[in-house]
Amino acid sequence: MPKIASRCRRGGFTLIEMMFALVILAGGLLAMLMVQTQALKQGRYGRHTSDAMQVARDQMEFFMRLPWGDAAVQPVGWTAPAPIGLAVQNESGAQTQQTFNVSWRISSAGFDPNVRVIEVSVTWTEDDIGAASPRSYLLASNKNNES
Question: What is the pTM (predicted TM-score) of this model?
Fold first, then answer.
């Protein structure tokens, strides 16, 4: 009989303790997976925002370089969106096409007839799982009559 008592007193883990440990480990791994998925989505959104900002800056630079009397920098309401396609990388590293829609508005500044306000709007959609969510970036600047 002493042999049976010594077997029960041996150190070690029971099956229930192992199951609890595995459940805790699985919960931690699942939480890490969810965080990683969210980080990938935010990284993609950040890349698209940077690309949209560059598109807006390019368009703004175009307007700023034009002479004051040029027809392209005369006051006009919001233009129809013009699509611009850029190649971007997805999570797996493959090149995909992202479309940005660019529109602009040029208005006279009420405080000075020699100043025009130029606004450039860039919109795009983020293809999240399940639905596409619209995003936008707006850049505004003043153009002075330098003549």
Answer: 0.70
